[in-house]
Design goal:
The strands form 10 sheets. Strands 1-2-3-4-6-5 form a 6-stranded antiparallel beta sheet, covered by helices on one side. It has a 4-stranded mixed beta sheet with strand order 18-22-19-20, with helices on one face. It has a 3-stranded antiparallel beta sheet with strand order 7-9-10. The chain contains 15 helices and 30 strands. It folds into 6 domains: about 100 residues, Phosphorylase Kinase, domain 1 (2-Layer Sandwich); about 180 residues, Transferase(Phosphotransferase), domain 1, CATH 1.10.510; about 60 residues, Trypsin Inhibitor V, Chain A; about 70 residues, Trypsin Inhibitor V, Chain A; about 55 residues, 2-Layer Sandwich (Trypsin Inhibitor V, Chain A); about 70 residues, Trypsin Inhibitor V, Chain A. It is α+β, with helices and mostly antiparallel strands. Helix 4 packs antiparallel against helix 6, helix 4 runs antiparallel to helix 9 and helix 6 packs antiparallel against helix 8. The protein is elongated.
């Protein structure tokens, strides 16, 4: 047993009073997988235990439980079964089907690229399992070679539904853009959305890799690869491997179209095309779907694609009741002779095994050492662990959104790669998230700004909407809240951000509806449709009819109106009533006209403003005898007062 195995406190532990942990078989960023014995059912199982430092993280806990629920909804021979899920103290775990064998990643690492018939065999099985998930309304979201298991008995299964989501809940914020960047669909990079066609894109990239021996996009930084997914088209595999038939070229191009609508609708549609290609090429997939009585499944080498052996019938001789003593003696003699031959053969096999063991660990593959898992620790600890394995360490700084600065991310070569003693292993050390310069955001559409932010892994944490003269959907301002906390920084005119920061946007809803000239009821309906509340205030107006909206009041505190605000409607109640002065009676016509017009009335003087030959003006000679309406009463401003003149 290795040093890391001996140091693992879970080895030998009884989990939840039922599962006896035997050995560690895999470790990832989220969980470690052990082989264990289910003491209740007396069978071997794979026990997936979430890392202790994630146990307080509700996001990881929900993702862990989601894997159990998603897989439990599926019943397909090409999906890894999940038997149980539980909690033992602070330890969350899943109990899964145990499949001795290798992953597709290990097969590709061993053989680089696969033959056409091997590729179709694996694709047929993966698509069958994924089709069951899509029919159940589940999107896997993390299809990659590491999640395809090739069992020793020939079965091929897809597992790890830890990122699975229902197809009806397919959006993801920038912080949720999970999965391996090499297989990430363009829509997850640009819009943060995923459906069954996103899984198809990942399958297309994986199909390319199986046929060519390498991924189509490469880059020193994850963002470089993500940008290629969003902007480039996957080349034909035959450009790198002339042995790839045209049908598989077309299948890769169809599955990796940048627009989801141009890809196969789901895994069932792609599986139908794969089986058409198999018929056209005269190939049949060699997939083991089950092991039943009378069928022997074997694997001479877990590094080879295994096949189901033909059915074998056990034939035995029927015993006879009538056997004489001579016959019994001959039978005993033959049994002793046979036993002696087997013992001699066993001695020879043990001798040969001892010689082989000496070669294996002396100069053969056994002299190599496996690269340990050096992720999520200090560089000093990683260096010490490699030194303990007789390997040398070399640090290389990398950016990482999730792993804190100063903590190791992984290594090159990866975990479990077998190397000569003394080989230098590159240890990747996180320097924290990468930084990016954003352009001016004001004036762009909200969709464009969301895409810009998503491309640098900045999520939109909130959006404020305001009514302005700018077109609906136009970004008015933006602020960035650092991932580490602290005050938000204005980014309206552009700024520098770190991956994992969050953004708040203010977006225009267009102008507020113009309600002037409408009735109060009409105005209230128009404003209610844009989520504005209303109150009324009544005002006198000489120009706007009673019951008609003059306009809206100013917003308390100033600024732009927002949905949910309460708008004050200024409603006309007609002209203001004014008292006709008593002293108008007895005034000259001219003085009375001036007085009444000064109060806002129209005046009918009852006599022309003529001029006598001697130069006297009638309005100065005649006086007011009476008014209509009568002096001392009120009349609306703007109404006409008629004067009755007298000398």
């Amino acid at each position: 047993m290795s040093t890391s195995q001996q140091a693992d406190p879970l080895i030998g532990r009884l989990v939840d009073g039922r599962y006896r942990v035997r050995a560690r078989i895999a470790r990832g960023g989220m969980a470690t997988v052990y082989v264990a014995t289910d003491l209740r059912l007396e069978r071997r199982v794979a026990l997936k235990v979430m890392h202790g430092h994630l146990s307080d993280d509700t996001v990881f806990q929900s993702r862990f439980i989601q894997e159990a629920r998603s897989a439990a909804r599926l019943s397909d021979p090409h999906v890894v079964n999940v038997f149980d899920q539980g909690q033992d103290g602070e330890m969350a775990y899943l109990v899964m089907e145990y499949l001795p064998g290798i992953t597709l990643r290990e097969l590709l690492r061993e053989h680089r690229r696969l033959t056409v018939d091997q590729t179709l065999t694996i694709m047929d099985a993966i698509l069958s399992g994924l089709a069951a998930a899509h029919r159940a309304g589940i999107v896997h979201r993390d299809v990659k070679p590491e999640n395809v298991l090739l069992a020793e008995d020939g079965r091929i299964k897809i597992g790890d539904f830890g990122l699975a989501r229902a197809t009806t809940a397919n959006t993801a914020s920038g912080a949720q853009l999970m999965g391996t960047i090499a297989y990430l669909a363009p829509e997850l990079v640009t819009r943060g959305t995923a459906d069954a066609r996103s899984d198809i894109y990942s399958l297309g990239i994986m199909l390319y890799e199986m046929l060519v021996g390498e991924q189509p996009y490469k880059g020193e930084q994850p963002m470089q690869i993500a940008y290629q997914h969003a902007t480039d088209s996957v080349p034909r595999p035959s450009a790198k491997n002339p042995g790839v038939p045209e049908q598989l070229d077309e299948l890769v191009l169809w599955a990796t179209e940048r627009e989801p609508a141009e890809r196969p609708l789901d895994a069932s549609a792609m599986l139908d095309r794969v089986r058409e290609v198999e018929k056209e090429l005269g190939l049949a997939p060699q997939v083991a779907r089950a092991v039943s009585v009378g069928v022997t499944a074997s694997a001479a080498d877990s590094r080879e694609l295994t096949k189901i052996l033909p059915q074998t019938a056990a034939v035995s001789a029927a015993p006879t009741d009538d056997v004489d003593n001579a016959t019994r003696l001959r039978q005993r003699t033959r049994r002793r002779t046979t036993r002696g031959i087997w013992l001699f053969a066993l001695v020879l096999m043990l001798a040969a095994g001892a010689a082989t063991t000496g070669w294996w660990f002396g100069s053969g593959p056994g002299s190599l050492v496996a690269v340990p898992d050096v992720s999520r620790m200090s560089y000093a600890d990683a260096e010490a662990l490699l030194t303990d394995r007789q390997l040398s360490a070399q640090a290389q700084e990398v950016t990482d959104r999730e792993i804190p600065a100063g903590t190791t991310v992984g290594s090159d070569p990866d975990v479990d790669a077998r190397l000569d003693k003394g080989t230098v292993v590159t240890v990747f050390v996180s320097i924290g998230p990468a930084s990016h310069d954003l352009p001016e955001l004001a004036g762009k559409s909200s969709d464009e700004v969301t895409g810009i932010l998503g491309s640098v892994f900045v999520g939109v944490s909130g959006t404020t909407q305001e009514f302005t003269d700018a077109a609906s959907g136009t970004v008015l301002s933006a602020s960035i809240t650092p991932r580490a906390g602290g005050e938000a920084v204005d980014c309206t005119q552009g700024c520098t951000v770190l991956e994992g920061d969050s953004a708040a946007l203010t977006v225009s809803l267009g102008p507020i509806p113009d309600v002037a000239g409408l009735t109060a009821a009409q105005a209230e309906r128009a404003l209610s449709e844009v989520q504005l509340q209303t109150t009324r205030s009544e005002e006198y107006s000489n120009s706007v009819p009673s019951g008609t909206v003059i306009g809206i009041g100013d917003r308390d505190g100033g600024g732009n109106w927002r949905p949910g605000d309460t708008v004050t409607l200024r409603v006309s109640i007609g002209p203001r009533p004014v008292q006709i002065p008593d002293n108008v009676v007895g005034m000259s016509i001219r003085d009375a006209v001036g007085t009444l017009e000064g109060l806002g009335f129209q005046v009918n003087a009852g006599i022309d403003d003529g001029t006598l030959p001697l130069g006297f003006k009638y309005w100065d000679i005649y006086k007011v005898r009476a008014t209509n309406p009568k002096a001392g009463t009120t009349a609306p401003q703007g109404s006409t007062i008629t004067l009755t003149p007298t000398l």
